[in-house]
Amino acid sequence: MSEKKKDDETTTVQVFGIFMFVWITLGLSAFVWSIYCFGKTGSMLQKFIGLLMAVFFGPLFFLMYKFSPTYCK
């Protein structure tokens, strides 16, 4: 294997590792935030959907948080 190809693979693994670290960290914070939102405004359905989004979609939970006018305010 050439040295350039090995360097490219190493860079790819490092970028992927950083991406996964950030995704997991934001996912855990989304989960904690969704638990916190159970004490805030919003319907019980919104709170349940928020929890499910945090568990299954991680950081994408923050899209619901930002764009829902009645959830967790």
Commentary on this structure:
- This protein is mostly helical and 73 residues long.
- Helices cover 75% and strands 0% of the residues.
- Helix 1 packs antiparallel against helix 2 (44-57) and helix 2 (44-57) runs antiparallel to helix 3.
- The protein is rod-shaped and about 60 Å long.
- The model has no long low-confidence stretch (mean pLDDT 92).
Low-confidence stretches: none
For this structure, the quaternary state is single chain
Structural class: mainly alpha
SSE string? HHH
Q: Helix tally?
A: 3
Q: Level of helix content? A: over 70%
Largest sheet: none
Shape: rod-shaped
Strand content: under 5%
Radius of gyration using CA atoms only: 18 Å
Mean pLDDT: 92
Number of strands: 0
Give the N-terminus to C-terminus distance in angstroms: 56 Å
Which labels suit this protein?
single chain; mainly alpha; rod-shaped; 73 residues
Task: Show the helix and strand layout.
Layout: H1 3-36, H2 44-57, H3 61-67
Helix pairs in contact: 1-2, 2-3
